[in-house]
Amino acid sequence: MTENDPNFQGLTVASFESRRRDEIAAIIEKRGGNALVAPSMREVPIPENRSAIDFANCIITGQIEIVILMTGVGFRHLITAIEKHVDLQAFLNALSDITTISRGPKVVAAMKEVGLSPTVKVPLPNTWRELLQAIDAEVPISNQVIGLQEYGVTNASLIAGLEARGGQVQKVKVYEWDLPEDTAPLEENIKQIVTGKVDVTLFTSANQLNHVLKMADQMKLGEQFRSALRGTVICSVGPTMSERLRDLGFPVDVEPENPKMGPLVKLAAAKSADILVRKKQIRVALSETGPDVNNTQAAWYNSPFMKACRREPTDVTPVWLMRQAGRYMEEYREVRAKTTFLDLCKNPQLCSEVMCTAVEKLGVDAAIIFSDILPILEPMGLDLEYAKGEGPIIHNPIREANDLSRIMELESADSLHFVMETVKQTRADLPAHIPVIGFSGAPFTLASYAIEGGSSRNYLFTKTLMYRDPGAWKDLMERFSRAITIYLNAQIAAGAQAVQLFDSWAGCLSTDDYRRYVFPYVKSIIAGITPGVPFINFATGNPQLLPMLAEAGAAVVGVDWRIRLDTAWETIGENYAVQGNLDPLSLFADHIELRRRTKDVLDQAAGRPGHIFNLGHGVLQQTPVENVQALVEMVHEISSR
Ligand code: CP3
Predict the structure, then answer these.
(1) In this predicted structure, what is the pLDDT of residue 193?
(2) pTM of structure
(3) Quick one: pLDDT at residue 414?
(4) Considering 291, 366, 474, 553, which has the largest number of Cβ atoms within 10 A of its Cβ?
(5) Which residues contact 78 (CB under 8 A, 6 or more apart)?
């Protein structure tokens, strides 16, 4: 090993690799790391596996038309489990006659051992996403019975994807994972992490994480362990592992392009020292700064936006736009081309970059953090995906009271720490006079996503639950409200100067239903927010709700374009600031018309203190960016006093 080869320089590196523990320990030590390797799992074949035998018979008799093989080890176990009970040659012949889909190279190798080769090979990086893409490209599965050889835990996203394409899934499990027989080394590694003695943690298979967390929970160290683990440099062997880590709220700091042990350790050795420094800085900052909401000396405190929130007079009407950073902007599309939307949301550095670029390009007076309303659903137990062209999907929606037990209480904002890091990073990167706005989805809108599983036309399932089972509804709304309060306060502690609640779907409710099924919860959220921080309460679709948005205790009420701004302000009363309300489609008009419409909104505000100019809803994807820039200029110019 030469001097320039990446070296851990004495950092302590934990790994949970089981089968190849000696090998990984040797590579870590060779790269100058202090290796703590503790096996975390043991493969246990299922004895007398009746369902494997049934599965094989279904294949032989033609009742299964397509087979997906997930792992090489699993395929070999499947053969072992059935060979004494069915005619093995008949089984292999049947397999060669139907469509077989191999998830990765190890499956191909295992199939070759018995003289088979798959019909479809899933391309790298071999996650369930590529698998579904390969199916879309090569195998029509509608109305087909698909046999799925699973490994470890069931992959709900894959099954939902297959079912969404009209396939009927028949699963077979050939082995299970259990904790190792001797758990002492694993317990010791967990203690070392909890006491801060570990710098770098390596994960080499997705089930390791579940096992380590299970063990930590058994040791009653669950929360401490999760928090301490986030302080280490978290290194993932590949995309499937990374996805599991992120789903459970752990940021991935290092992932090699080639998903193997050697490249993983090499990259970790190269990068860990720098990442550790950055992580420590953020931790210290988050624990020390706390809310600094009444710092009257801060540049942002005296910005037009903050003054308007407090209904103080300003020289110019402040303006920012909902969805000001997004697909209508080329710089955003470039960043987005390299990553998925959810991964972008979990990358604080990139989130800050995206928002700061938009703020600079547009010249707006406030920056909302770059994130989304839905990631909070993940740590609460919902399986979120942003599907290309379809918008958000929840793969495991809740439909009835029984499902509510699946919605986990958000005990702390730790699992959403990437959002707090985004706040912190954005605050640090922005000019001091630009306030940072934190945000959350409102309980009704979040509940509707969780219940409908995606966007909806008439909120059938949401309203069914609400009307049929008010007790379950109350329970759900209380759970969301507690989570949102914790989440917004954590954003404030991380450096947000104001917060906004988005109730994008509340407009489908009558005033009576809003009063009864939504208002108490929004009110409880606002009551729980760090005092002194302006709260912007925004809902769209039904202007009749405006007085209740104000009554809930907000400092600022967000108004959409369906009502005149002056009428809205009169109904709410002068004690509130207002934010709005240009129709976002005005941005498709020519500059003369855009100017006329902009002036019209400003005229209705009539220079009263407490107006924040905004659109009535977010910027649309097709919007010409130069019109957005022109709008910001017009607001500043026309309102200059
Ligand atoms: O500039 C900003 O305002 C910052 C970030 C922001 C996003 N979403 C980024 C985003 C904010 C504040 C949101 C809020 C949000 N997200 C709302 C409330 C506001 C509203 O429009 O009513 C809602 C309902 C969502 C849910 C959501 N997120 C949907 C329905 C979609 C897909 C469809 C769409 O409009 O793009 C998203 C994805 C999303 N959120 C994108 C962005 C930039 C596009 C993702 C991509 O790049 O593919």
Answers:
(1) 96
(2) 0.71
(3) 82
(4) 366
(5) 52, 55, 56, 149, 172, 174
